[in-house]
Structures are given as structure tokens and as C-alpha cells.
Amino acid sequence: MSGEASDGARAESKMPTARQVPLRPRDAATLILVDASTGAPKVLLGKRRLDMKFMPGKYVFPGGRVDKADRTVAVGDDLATAEIEKLMVDMKGGPSQQRARALALAAIRETYEEAGLVIGRPLNGQSPPKDASWQRFFDLGFAPSLEPLTFFARAITPPGRPRRFDTRFFCVETTAIAFRGKPPEDELSDLVWMDLIEARALDLPPITRVILEDLGDRLKLGPIRSISAPVPYYFNRNGSFRRELITLAGASST
Q1: What pLDDT, on the 0 to 100 scale, is given for residue 39?
Q2: Domains assigned to the chain
Q3: In terms of DSSP H, where are the helices of 63-205?
Q4: What is the pLDDT of residues 79-88, one digit of tens each?
Q5: Angstrom distances, CA of residue 176 to CA of 30, 94, 142, 202, 240
């Protein structure tokens, strides 16, 4: 289920009334798949069903909230140390490497469930998990591969929304796709690969547009993994929309 913090737009920002208690944002993750094989880079977006209560009809990246099993599932390889450290910057609650990995795993699991794409490596004798949320993934003969993922952006849904997510956006190039199949769930329809200019014509949540602009700027520097860059971080503070940059030294305002 797509858990982008897509209500994080400047124009839509509003603070809760005195009687409201802001919901605690739930950990969520999204995967931006980048196809740079020919011409202008393209990204994968899908349309949320019209009968959904959260962002019906909007085009989003595959993703969703972190499940309990995402904290314990076996992996084929690990995130780079620098990615884990950046994920832990300003991590709400109890910061841990386990939670950092769970975020990346949620992005991979949701991408398989919603788009049928596997970012993984052959099991090679690893025992599949008993948890149903990962069983279908492992039944294909793969364990999730974290090493190709780059932590790219973060956005927290503003207070006052009926659902709030603390969403981490990861990027991965399509060369990391190990298997392409039919999505086991129907939460996203009309899956499309579009370059960044074409994507702007879609019905996108405001924060998705912001992330696409960041992605376009980042790709001008070269392939995502070729250069270590600060991570844009969007959130609301005292009623104002803020953008900071996450680095290994912490978060700083822009």
C-alpha cells in the first residue's frame, strides 16, 4: 500500500486545532525505479484505485508502510554503511540500524506487491520466512537485495491529516531488477514508465512533484549511485513547510 507522505505540500499545510492531537507518523518507504538505459531517464508510477480512501486516482511511486516482518526478514546483501547512517539522522522514536534496514525492505516488498518487480538475489539455500507478507517474494527464489538502493529523500505528512507517514524515498536503477512478474496485489493500476517531463502531466500528489524535481536536479550530476549527495528532508514546523538536507553530519536547513 502506497505510503508516500504525499499530503506534505506547502499549499495544503495546516495545523491541528487546540483539541486535536496530531497522529504520530508511521514509518513508510517508497521506491523510485530509474530506467536510464535509453535517452531521458524514466521512472515507474502507478495509479491508485479510485475506491481507495487515501489519495484515490493519484499517480504514485510503489511503496507503503513498514510491516513488523520487515524488521526480521533475511536479506541477500546489505545497505551501504553511509545509507544506514543517513537513514538514522533524526529518526523518530528509537533509532536503530534494524529500523533503517526495515525501511529499505518495506520499499522492496511493496514494489513487488504493487508492480511485480523483484529487487533481489537468488536464495542460494536461505530459508524463506514464515511470515505471509514476504512468502510470495521468497517463493520466487529470491532474497531481497538492499545494496543497490540509495536513500534519496524523506517527507513527513503535516499534522492534522487523517493519516500521517514518515516516508523515506529510495532510488534504484532498473539494472537491479532480478524478476518481472504480475503484481500479486491490485492497489496500483496503469503502471507507466515516463520521463520526468512526461510525468508532470499526471495527477500527482504535491510532494511527488517536489521529489521529481529533486530527482531531475540529482540526475544532472550523473547516475544516482555515482555521487554521494545530501538527502532532501521535507516536514512542517510551527505551521511552516521546511526543507532541510540530511548528511552524515546531520540535518541542516537550506
Answers
A1: 86
A2: 26-253 (3.90.79.10)
A3: 81-87, 97-115, 132-139, 196-199
A4: 999 999 999 9
A5: 16, 31, 13, 26, 38
Pairing of strands 150-156, 231-237: parallel
Reported confidence tier of residue 147, pLDDT bands at 50, 70, 90: very high
| Torsion over CA: 158, 161, 164, 167 (sign) | negative
What phi-psi label fits residue 14: left (phi over 0), alpha (psi between -120 and 50 degrees) or beta?
beta
Which of 208, 5, 119 shows the shortest CA–CA distance to 216? 208
C-alpha of 79 from chain center = 15
* Bridge partners, 46 (sequence order): 60
- What's the CA gap between 122 and 140, in Å, rounded? 9
- Contact criterion met (CB below 8 Å) for 172 and 34: yes
Bridge partners of 224, per DSSP, are none
Burial 73-105 (b: 16+ CB within 10 A, else e): bebbeebbeebbbbbebebeeeeeeebbbbbbb
Strand boundaries in 147-230, DSSP class E = 150-156, 165-173, 177-180, 188-195
3-state class of 122 per DSSP?
A: strand
pLDDT of residue 10: 38
Among residues 7, 59, 36, which one has the least CA distance to residue 165? 7
Confidence at residue 5, expressed as pLDDT on a 0 to 100 scale: 47
What pLDDT was estimated at residue 17? Answer: 46
Confidence category of residue 90, pLDDT binned at 50, 70, 90: very high
Look at the pTM and tell me if it is higher than 0.85. yes
